[in-house]
Design goal:
286 residues; Rossmann fold; D-amino Acid Aminotransferase, Chain A, domain 1; 3 domains; 3-stranded antiparallel β-sheet; 9 helices
């Protein structure tokens, strides 16, 4: 068990982690920028360290400052919360090299799942059913051929994306090239990576997620599904578990099928899947 955890975040998520640490008898360390010196998470933690000025790139995104704060306070683990550096594989790698436990997915898992094209390839190797789609496309001819093969409508997505940024729904093939280039520009600005891919677009989908969890000793399971279909601009507004919209006749069968695929992924039964999950995570189904 950890003796002291540094929370590399602020606000509500930092408070949640600090509260959990307190309930488990673990000391907590808050970090803060000069603008957050009087924030509640700073007052609630057992220790607090200033890591820089207000701009996030100079404080909450400053890896050397966070590592220094952990070493100064004697923390033996770092919890990134969500946002900021929570999906930064390089930060997780640095923590491990500095003998700090990273409370989150492994760097390999983040690098794999952070690239949607690589993630699709891994899921295909694991035998998980997917919508028809493409890997990276590099010219307009490939773009038109892929759309003809998949069938309109299609959706264009950023390989490194999230939150709906870079997404373009295409019903008219005459718009394809222009929207592809626009999406690449948006993806480059938002994520620093212009790579895009294409999938068949589901016009009235349901968005179902399954929570998964695993440990370093080879124990893996899923925790059932939750309904995430109520969204605004591709962002979830509310989640409900279990899904209330599954037809009663097929719900148990659907859940068993989804659970089976989750087990295949978590236990890496297929040799083509290189990353193993050793904390909590979720996968999306449509």
């Amino acid at each position: 068990m950890f003796k002291k955890v540094l929370v590399a975040n602020r606000g509500e998520i930092a408070l949640r982690v600090i509260r959990a640490c307190r309930e488990m008898g673990i000391k907590s360390v808050a970090v803060y920028s000069t603008a957050d010196a009087d924030a509640l998470h700073v007052k609630f933690a057992d220790q607090a360290v200033c890591i820089g000025p207000p701009p996030s790139r100079l404080s909450y995104l400053n890896i050397p400052s966070l590592i220094s704060a952990a070493e100064i306070t004697g923390a033996d683990a770092i919890h990134p919360g969500y946002g900021f550096l929570s999906e930064n594989a390089d930060f997780a790698e640095v923590c491990r090299k500095c003998k700090l436990t990273w409370i989150g997915p492994s760097p390999d898992a983040m690098r794999l799942m952070g690239d949607k094209i690589r993630a699709r390839e891994a899921m295909a190797k694991a035998g998980v059913p997917m919508l028809p789609g493409t890997a990276g496309i590099h010219d307009e001819i490939q773009l038109l051929e892929a759309a003809a093969r998949i069938g309109l409508p299609v959706i264009l997505k950023a390989a490194a994306g999230g939150g709906g940024r870079g997404m373009k729904i295409i019903h008219d093939p005459d718009r394809l090239a222009n929207d592809w280039n626009t999406g690449r520009t948006e993806a480059l600005a938002a994520f620093g990576n212009p790579e895009m891919f294409m999938e068949r677009y589901c016009q009235k989908p349901r968005h179902i997620e399954i929570q998964v969890i695993g440990d370093k000793h080879g124990h893996y399971t899923h925790l059932g599904e939750r309904e995430c279909s109520i969204q605004r601009r591709h962002q979830k507004v509310i989640e409900e578990a279990p899904s209330p919209r599954s037809p009663r006749a097929c719900a148990p069968r659907c859940r068993r099928g989804q659970g089976h695929h989750q087990d295949r992924l978590l236990q890496r039964r297929h040799p083509g899947v290189p990353a193993r999950q050793s904390t909590a995570g979720s996968t999306s189904w449509r």
